[in-house]
Amino acid sequence: MIWQIDLAVLLLVVICAVGALAVKDLMGAAILFGAYSFLMCILWAVMGAVDVAFTEASVGAGVSTVFFVAAVFRTSRRTKD
Amino acid sequence: MEEYIPLLLTKYNYWVYITLMMIGLWAMIAKNNLVKKIVGMNIFQTAIILFYVSIGAKYGGTIPIIQHGPGHGHGAAQIKALAYINPLPHVLMLTAIVVSVATLGVALALVIKIHRRHRTLEEDEILEQLRES
Fold it and tell me: What CATH number has the domain spanning B4-59+85-132?
C-alpha cells in the first residue's frame, strides 16, 4: 500500500460522495456516483485487493451506473434537494 | 494521551470509512428525493466494504498470490504468510458487492413503480398525495 496514493484517492472519494448527493440534477448524481465507484476501484487496487477491484469496476461502476441512468431516463431528472 | 496521536493519524482509512458511512446515513434519512436516498444507501455499503478491505491491507505486503509455491520445481519453498495481504476480507466483500448491486436493482424497480403511480419522486409530495386520497 502506497500511502500517498491512498490518501489522495480517499480525499477524492469523499468529494465525489458529497458531490453526488449535493448536485441538483439526478443525471449528474448518477454520473458522479459512477466516478465514485471507479475511485473506490482504484482504492482497492492500491490496497492489494485486486479481485475486489475488478469486480467493483465491472459490477459496481459499470452495471450500477447503467441502472441509474436507465431509471432516471424512465422517471424524471428533477430533484428539489 | 500522546501515544494515541500516531495511532489516530496512521489509521486514516478508518476515519474516512466513518465519514463515508455517516454521509450515507445522513442521505438515507434527510434527503427528500428517492434516487438520492438510494445513492446514499450505496455509499453506506461501499463504506462498509472499505472498512473490511482496510482490515486486510498491510504496508509492504504483496497481493495474495503465492510466488514459488510447492510444486513449481524449486523444492519445498517456505511460504511466508506475513508477506501477503490477508485475502479473507476480500472474499467476503466480493459477495457484498454482488448483493449491493442486487439491492440497487430492486430499489430502482420500486422507484420506477412509485413514479408510475404518483408521477413524482419527492417523498413529501408522495406523502401528500397519499394523505389526500
Answer: 1.10.287.3510
Q: Which helix H or strand E contains B60, and what residues bound it?
A: none
Q: Chain A residues with CB inside 8 Å of B115's CB?
A: 74-76
Helix/strand/coil for B122: strand
Q: Which of B106, B89, B39 is nearest to A22 (CA)?
A: B39
Residues 102-131 in B contacting A (C-alpha not used; CB under 8 Å): 104-105, 108, 111-112, 115, 120-122
Contact (CB<8Å) B40/A21: yes
pLDDT in tens, B9-66: 778 889 999 999 999 999 999 999 999 999 999 999 999 999 999 998 888 888 888 7
Nearest-angstrom CA–CA distance, A29 and B122: 15
- What ipTM describes this predicted complex? 0.93
Q: Nearest CA of chain A to the CA of B130: how many Å?
A: 19
